[in-house]
TrEMBL record:
Its EC number is 2.7.1.-. PANTHER family: SUGAR KINASE, XYLULOSE KINASE. SUPFAM superfamilies: Actin-like ATPase domain. It comes from Pseudonocardia charpentierae. Keywords: Carbohydrate metabolism, Kinase, Transferase, Xylose metabolism. It holds the Pfam family FGGY_C. It comes from the Bacteria. This is FGGY-family carbohydrate kinase. Belongs to the FGGY kinase family. The keyword Transferase applies.
Length: 501
């Protein structure tokens, strides 16, 4: 007889995935389908939105595909998904408007005003979290100023996974991971009246869903059962969101892992460290994500752009992704003097610093520079960014790595060399869905063997021969960053003058 099966669903930014695991954490099935982003709909500059109904339809299809592949009906459902943004729904969890993605840049000027007035620093001192244009508070305030009638019709301004959870179960709730940023009160379990006051959102407090720790759990209702093709009453859990879910799925965030870190080489470059204290001093950058356990935090530094920077370069140069491994082998460490600042997101950067005007650049180019050097310089630039993030987040233990970029052995060698520490390869597939299943099982009181579920698949050792080169390279990268920062604002001022003309 087949043992128990567990369904994990990850509603990401560009792909919705469903994975079914057995009791040992082995994948019985994995299915995924892409979902679209709507850029500058109706000509609104900086707008990046998503259609919630399209996500639900895609979710239904991938779950059906996964159940068919596994040949087994799962006994529980665990949800995770993209964080941040703003998902506006009515009392029955139907969208009131398209969701504002975390990539949305419309609130850039608002965040800039908050930075200049000291709001960002004070919020950071309360919650340990910074804000950027796609953060929930910024998106919600933008709507409050520009579409107040939309919020008047809404019941909840929440997060992707929670909107799905509501649609599947009829229960309005969020988990501590999403709730702790940016409205958190520093306990990991509540909202801050002062943060709502600082952001001018006190009158919109009713739109924030109740917080349930460690994660919300409810039964699948009739509509949800029809959507997923599962029996009514199947338990469903919601959370944590994808970043901390990947932490749990790789073995980070559990007792005894303080100081350990996770590196996600995905669309974004995610750097996360398990801390036993709230970090809310110093520069207002990064996020302190509650684990749902008292005094336990995940210090997150999610840089806006990861593999998306590499994808951009490959598209510009007309190179296939499959060629990257070889190109990294032909250009030497240091990329023949080429350096790349990989801040290419339209909404700027959020970690390890916050600047809505941050932009990428390439320096050190000569007539002898070739495409191999450019590709390697982008990969090294992202590795330098990871080092910057981990130094800011207080990493002191092992680093586990996952994400699409982790499939490139040569790129993982670059990361190991720049970070100067062994990289532990997380158990695959679907680390985020795996973490959501573990969190859901714990919330239901079901014991799964965490060590077995998160056993690593290998280790990439750093090459000590490259240590001096990459130490100097990182120092130079930081010099380039400091030199570029004032220029971003000069460029923005010139662009504004051009618009006026």
């Amino acid at each position: 007889m087949a043992g128990k099966a567990y369904l994990g669903i990850d509603a990401g930014t560009s792909v919705v995935k469903a994975a079914i695991f057995d009791e040992n954490g082995d994948a019985l099935a994995v299915q995924g389908r892409s979902i679209p982003l709507m850029h500058e709909r109706a000509g609104v500059r900086g707008a990046v939105e998503q259609d919630f109904e399209v996500i639900l339809a895609t979710l239904s299809a991938v779950v059906s595909d996964a159940i068919r592949e596994a040949g087994q009906t799962p006994e529980s459902v665990a949800l995770t998904g993209q964080g941040d943004g703003c998902w506006i729904t009515d009392e029955k969890f139907h969208p009131v408007r398209p969701a504002m993605s975390w990539l949305d840049g419309r609130a850039g000027s608002l965040v800039d005003e908050w930075a200049k007035s000291g709001v960002l620093q004070e919020v950071y001192g309360i919650s340990g979290g910074s804000m950027f244009p796609g953060a929930p508070a910024a998106c919600l305030k933008w709507l409050d100023l520009n579409e107040p009638e939309t919020l008047d019709r809404a019941a909840t301004a929440g997060y992707c996974k929670d909107a799905i959870f509501g649609r599947l179960t009829g229960v309005r709730a969020t988990d501590p991971s999403d709730a702790s940023m940016p409205f958190g009160d520093g306990t990991g379990m509540g909202y801050s009246d002062r943060v709502l006051e600082l952001t001018g959102l006190t009158d919109r407090r009713s739109l924030l869903a109740p917080i349930v720790a460690p994660v919300p759990v409810a039964d699948l209702h009739a509509e949800g059962a029809a959507l997923l093709g599962l029996p009514v009453g199947t338990p469903v859990s919601s959370g944590p969101f994808d970043f901390p879910a990947c932490g749990f799925g790789s073995g980070i965030g559990f007792p005894g892992t303080e100081g350990d870190a996770l590196l996600i080489v995905g669309t974004t470059l995610g750097c996360l460290v398990h801390r036993d204290e709230l970090v809310n001093t110093g520069d207002a950058a990064g996020f302190s994500v509650s684990t749902g356990k008292s005094g336990q935090w995940l210090r997150a530094m999610p840089a806006m752009v990861g593999t998306a920077s590499l994808d951009w370069v490959l598209r510009i140069l007309g190179i296939e992704v499959s060629a990257v491994e070889g190109l990294l082998g032909t250009s030497p460490p240091g990329a023949n003097g080429l350096n790349v600042l990989p801040y290419l997101a339209t909404s700027g950067e959020r970690a390890p610093f916050v600047d809505p005007l941050a932009a990428g650049s390439i320096s050190g180019m000569r007539l002898t520079t070739n495409r191999d050097d450019i590709v390697r310089a982008v990969c090294e630039g992202l590795a330098y960014t990871a080092r910057h993030c981990f130094e800011s987040a207080g990493q002191s233990g092992r680093i586990v790595v996952t994400g699409g970029g982790s499939k490139s052995s040569n790129w993982m060698q670059v990361f190991a060399d720049v970070l100067e520490t062994p990289l532990v390869l997380a158990r695959t597939p679907e680390v985020g869905a795996r973490g959501a299943v573990l969190a859901g099982a714990e919330a239901r009181g079901e014991e799964l063997d965490v060590e077995q579920w998160t056993s690593p698949e290998g280790v990439v050792e750093p090459n000590d021969a490259n240590r001096a080169l990459y130490d100097a390279g990182f120092a130079h990268q930081m010099e380039l960053l400091e030199a570029a920062r004032p220029l971003w604002h000069t460029r923005a001022a010139l662009a504004t003058q051009g618009d006026k003309k």
